[in-house]
Amino acid sequence: MFGALVTGRLPDTAAQQVDVNKFMFPIVDPESANHVTVFMLGTMPFEPGYAGGVYLCWPGPEPAWYLLGFISNDKPSATFRIAKTKPIDAVAAPNPFGGMMHPDAMMAAAAAAAAAGPPIAQIGVSIEPIAELTQHTPLPAAKAATASDFATFTQKTVESLFQFLTSFAVPREQALRSGDPNWVPLGALQRWHENYLHKLHLDPNFWKK
């Protein structure tokens, strides 16, 4: 019913069903994982009014589950940022998994106790009423950057550069008298600034082409 894909790794479509409405995926060496995408396989939709809450459990002596978000029939996949988001100070979500653990995580915990083997985190998908899932706040750091986030960052960067360079503006006559070989007409900089923002507005990913 579900699959998981960690950036740079092969997809995992063999979720371990640990309860009638709960599924788990192991994430080996989670410290090196950047993002994880959880998706529906398309073999079975959610019942009306239900969705899949996506939870993250970091390895540790007392595992705690943290809500990343959810997937649904209307949003069959979601990407979450897990790099550097170890929720040390975050408040754990209501735990729908109790003491359940993925078999690989159980073996990894035993190996860790013996100082052998990489740690394994767990991604859990719990089928719950959408009304309940929307009442909980997902881990803020898990939100993956979107195209609009990159567009905003690029726009702010370009505007900051423009403002910085224009702070050195001097009259043309003064620039010619100084003989500065690095002199650039302010009008050229203004045209570049306007053209760049116009292209960014039309296509946030134009700079990739």
What does this protein look like?
22% of the residues are buried. Helix 3 packs antiparallel against helix 5 (186-202). The chain is of the alpha+beta class and 209 residues long. The strands form two sheets. A five-stranded antiparallel sheet has the order 2-3-8-5-6. A three-stranded antiparallel sheet has the order 1-4-7, with no helix packed on it. The model has no long low-confidence stretch (mean pLDDT 78). It is 28% helix and 25% strand. It contains five helices and eight strands, in the order βββββββαβαααα. It has helices spanning 103-113, 130-133, 147-166, 172-178, 186-202, and strands at 2-6, 16-19, 22-28, 35-40, 50-57, 65-71, 77-81, 120-129. It starts with a strand and ends in a 7-residue tail after the last helix.
Give a short synopsis of this structure.
By secondary structure, this protein is an alpha+beta fold.
Shape: elongated
Mean pLDDT metric: 78
Helix amount, in percent?
Answer: 25-40%
Largest sheet: 5 strands, antiparallel
Strand arrangement, largest sheet?
Answer: 2-3-8-5-6
Low-confidence stretches: none
Going by helix content, strand content and strand pairing, the class is alpha+beta
Distance between the termini: 37 Å
What's the tally of helices? 5
Task: Tell me the series of helices and strands, N- to C-terminal.
Answer: EEEEEEEHEHHHH
Strand content: 15-25%
Radius of gyration: 24 Å
The assembly state of the depicted protein chains is: single chain
Q: Kindly state the number of beta strands.
A: 8
